[in-house]
Amino acid sequence: MTTATLLDGKAAAADTKRELTERVETLKSRGIAPGLGTVLVGDDPASHSYVGGKHRDCAQVGIASIRVELPGTATQADVEAAVLKLNADPACTGFIVQLPLPAHIDTHAVLELIDPAKDADGLHPANLGRLVLGMPGPLPCTPRGIIDLLRRNHVPVTGQQFCVIGCGLTVGRPLGLMLTRSSEHATVTLCHEATQDIAAHARAADVVVAAAGVAHLVKPDWIKPGATVLSVGITRTVEGILGDVHPDVDQVAGSLAPPVGGVGPMTRAMLLTNIVEAAERN
Ligand SMILES: Nc1nc(=O)c2c([nH]1)NC[C@@H]1CN(c3ccc(C(=O)N[C@@H](CCC(=O)O)C(=O)O)cc3)C=[N+]21
């Protein structure tokens, strides 16, 4: 039995960061200093580790970073005040509010307060609307990272059949929108909790994207031999990180993005790309 070719997100992210370092130099020579802001609420260790990674990335490519941390007891008004402050801060050219926010916070109200021109996640309603309309603007980082990872590995997209499992705000939903744009023109089946026979949809696909957050959901017999598979969702257990794709899928797939070192590093690289592009637009 053969094993799938690795879709190496770490290597692709390193290439992206090299390209961005040059663009940041050019911006600085024109007197523009890009700066990423992050708003982190509460003390979830995973969120702290992600945000820490984002600031390390910024330092690598020469982007300044502004870190705002609020306690888990922060009120709606506290979180909204932090957003308004970054909107007004000229040193911050783009920022994100790390999700998920604590349950007592109205996430949509917070996202809607972000200045759309500083929305580094592409999750403001105006920017999601621009995506639907095919207008230029910041794009959600994980779907953008998925498409870029496929492109850098010469995996065909146009005309291909995609099965996207999970239709959350940060991955599945915007990925479906991006893949069906005229620049990609893929055919997409978006599956979710109420889908009957997800396995049958997956078996019909040239590319399967698993972003449901259910450990080992996608089994080897769900995959058409030679298909491309991306394991995006993760579940943290005491034994370690489990992806949405069962490890034995490696024996059937043609290429595979693993749950660690796959799409994650590309998500971070696309955040930097959004920051640089926003600075270039202004
Ligand atoms: N407003 C907002 N925007 C996001 O983009 C966002 C978010 N909130 N909340 C959480 C999810 C998750 N996410 C990841 C980013 C990088 C890795 C990543 O770099 N992972 C490393 C491993 C890191 C580890 O060990 O945990 C890897 O795959 O090699 C993972 C997950 C961004 N998200």
TrEMBL record:
Pathway noted in the entry: One-carbon metabolism; tetrahydrofolate interconversion
GO cellular component entries: cytosol
Protein's name according to its UniProt entry: Bifunctional protein FolD
Source organism (scientific name): Streptomyces humidus
Job description of the protein: Catalyzes the oxidation of 5,10-methylenetetrahydrofolate to 5,10-methenyltetrahydrofolate and then the hydrolysis of 5,10-methenyltetrahydrofolate to 10-formyltetrahydrofolate.
Keyword Amino-acid biosynthesis attached: yes
Molecular functions per Gene Ontology: methenyltetrahydrofolate cyclohydrolase activity; methylenetetrahydrofolate dehydrogenase (NADP+) activity
Lineage, opening ranks: Bacteria, Bacillati, Actinomycetota, Actinomycetes, Kitasatosporales
GO biological process: L-histidine biosynthetic process; methionine biosynthetic process; purine nucleotide biosynthetic process; tetrahydrofolate interconversion
